[in-house]
Structure formats: C-alpha cells, structure tokens
Amino acid sequence: MSSTATADGVPAPYNSTVATRLGRRRIPIHTTFYWSHKVDILFRCWPGDSAAMYAVALLLVFVMAVLVEWLSFTKIVKLKPGASNDVVGGVLKTGLYGVRSGLSYLVMLAVMSFNGGVFIVAIGGHVIGFLIFGTRAFRKKSGGLDSPKP
Description:
By secondary structure, this protein is α+β, with helices and mostly antiparallel strands. The protein has helices at 51-73, 86-111, 116-134, and strands at 3-5, 11-13, 17-22, 25-30, 39-40, 47-48. α1 (51-73) packs antiparallel against α2 (86-111), α1 (51-73) runs parallel beside α3 (116-134) and α2 (86-111) packs antiparallel against α3.
C-alpha cells in the first residue's frame, strides 16, 4: 500500500479520504461516499458532531432542493407585452433567477461533502419538488386546454 505526503511532509494513507491540516485540526476530505453524521456541510464545523444538528442540516438541504424546483416552475412575475413596467418585471425575474441559481449551487456544494445522507435528501428534495411543481399531479383544473370537454 503506497502513501503520499501531505503539505507538512507527514505521509497520508492512500484510501478514500485525504487529510489536510488547517491550523491544528485535521479535516478529512472524502473522495467517495460515506455514511456518518459527523460531516461538515457548506461551512466548517457545521453541523458538528450532533446527530440532531445533522438532521437539521439534512432538512435544510431538502428544503433548498424543493425551493430550487419551485423557483424553476413558478411564474411569480408575469410580464405582459407592451406593459409600462417591463424593466421592473425583467429585474424581478432576473433577481429570482439569481436566487434559484444560488440555491442550486448551495445544494450542489452540500452534495460535494460526499455524505450519503446529504445526497439522498438532495435528490429527494428535487424529486418531491418536481412532483409538486413540475407535474400536473397537484395542479387545479383550470378550464383551459387541459380540461376535458363535457
């Protein structure tokens, strides 16, 4: 089994994690999926070693993924052609696009922790969000082209 040297010259074992030294704390950087509640998600030392805080972090990732899907399929700002507030509506749509992009990247960065639980809740959040907002399963009948003729 070979080993590689870290920045401080100490040999690191060749396995699924690489350890780096930040200050005096060794932080494992996983390169394969692992299952543990001891993980850093998005921020250093968060959620910590507590299983309850890990559950809160998983809930946050799930909600962010659902929000990404909601922002992808909702029409909050409706622009009418020739309206006098085209610029305001365009700025609002652009702002919402920025929020959606930011949330998407936060979910992606959370998944990059390589924690199996984070991966599952991120995918689950996207799936549930798509089911609710992207399909017709939970939409009210509008009497438009989708409704059956009597």
